[in-house]
């Protein structure tokens, strides 16, 4: 009996000690020492943008907040860069347009890849976090709402500068007068932006499917599978339809079913 009591006392001390250590660790996580680097990045403000660790509804709520906050920061940078792109398009500084679009594309891929972190949550844990959102949903993301507004301005600028106020056609750029020139390169940058935006929406839809299911109702009572409609939207449809037009044209010229090269 004494040995059992001693064992229980020992384990009790270990648990008590770890509890004290955990509290100390959490204190260091939330309030680290601020040297020049941290001061420049305003890490004190940045690290206070999440719920206090003691108030988390589940341990996964911290990663849920951080991933989505990081996504908002990437979208802020992306929107800022797209506004610069509009400026450089108007100035016809084509190389700058293309290199900045390359940055945007990298940011888009980062946003897609980061969604993998959220799949480490179980559906049950997500339900606990979901209760903390009020009636909010990802559709209300300020960064994403801004991101959806910019493509129309980008296309209007593309028509004005690269289609010479519609005196040129997309077909001329891609087929009839094809020269793989700056017009083509910028058009393909737009296509890549559009494609990555669609991929993000599809990836997000699969995340929702894995978390709460597409057959469920959203926090606003709307079916979540409405996300599929958004995921199918093309922002630059003329740059996509040219592919089908060219393929059909070639099919008429060379035949849709051609002689086999086998044998």
Note down, in words, how this protein is organized.
Helix 4 packs antiparallel against helix 5 (94-118), helix 4 packs parallel to helix 7 and helix 8 (170-176) crosses helix 11 (237-254). The protein has helices at residues 2-30, 36-40, 43-46, 60-90, 94-118, 123-130, 142-161, 170-176, 182-211, 227-231, 237-254. The mean pLDDT is 89. It has 2 domains: 7-48, no CATH class; 59-244, Methane Monooxygenase Hydroxylase, Chain G, domain 1, CATH 1.20.58.480. The protein contains 11 helices and no strands. With 263 residues, the chain is mainly alpha-helical.
Please describe the topology of this protein.
Blueprint: H1 2-30, H2 36-40, H3 43-46, H4 60-90, H5 94-118, H6 123-130, H7 142-161, H8 170-176, H9 182-211, H10 227-231, H11 237-254
Domains (count)? 2
The third-level CATH topology of the largest domain is: Methane Monooxygenase Hydroxylase, Chain G, domain 1
Oligomer: single chain
The termini sit apart by 89 Å
Q: What does the radius of gyration come to? A: 26 Å
Shape: elongated
Provide a quick synopsis of the model:
By secondary structure, this protein is an all-alpha fold. It contains eleven helices and no strands. It is elongated and about 90 Å long.
Which properties best describe this structure?
11 helices, 263 residues, 2 domains, single chain, Methane Monooxygenase Hydroxylase, Chain G, domain 1, mainly alpha
